[in-house]
Amino acid sequence: xQLLSIxxxxxxxxxxxxxxxxxxxxxAIHKQSISNLASPTPVEITxxxxxxxxxADPSVHGGIEKAIYVYPVEHxxxxxxxxxxxxxxxxxxxxxxxGENFTIQGLLETEVFVGDQMQIGELQFTVVKLRxxxxxxxxKMHYKxxxxxxxxxxxxxxxxxxxxxGLLAAGAxxxxxxxxRVTSIADQNLALFNRGNxxxxxx
Length: 203
Prior knowledge:
This protein is 18% helix and 29% strand. The protein is an alpha+beta fold. The model is unreliable at 199-203 (pLDDT under 50).
């Protein structure tokens, strides 16, 4: 298990016809890789996440409990295929495309439980909850069904709380220290999907 990329972004206007009330909205979902295997630059990780990273709406991303958003690279193939088909043009998403701070390899939602500890390099984190997609994700992907596809696939990624701050670089090894293992991220996804309430996709 390995950290492939650390990404950061600034708040900027996000445009799209993906919400009934807004043609644009502020978002920092556009992330750029600032440390990757080709250039493993050390990055400062604070209690609030990647130093310099911004969030437009702390209620859905950011703060102590949602400091770091993690996404498995294994899901990229699914999205590249889906978006290429839906947009009728080739899509090859760059790392950080889902607004994630950490792109990782070797760990999926079915294997990660709320309360688990993740040791990444010298730093330690706690798994908090899944990422719930919203209309901003649709706008970022240029596909109005993106948020629904994330919910249906269960390919949500998850949020981490930072327990130990310091420097971290791409290439760092990941170790999971199991907690009580009652609810997996996949379980949370399924519960959200079965709730049958799609309002989260438009809030």
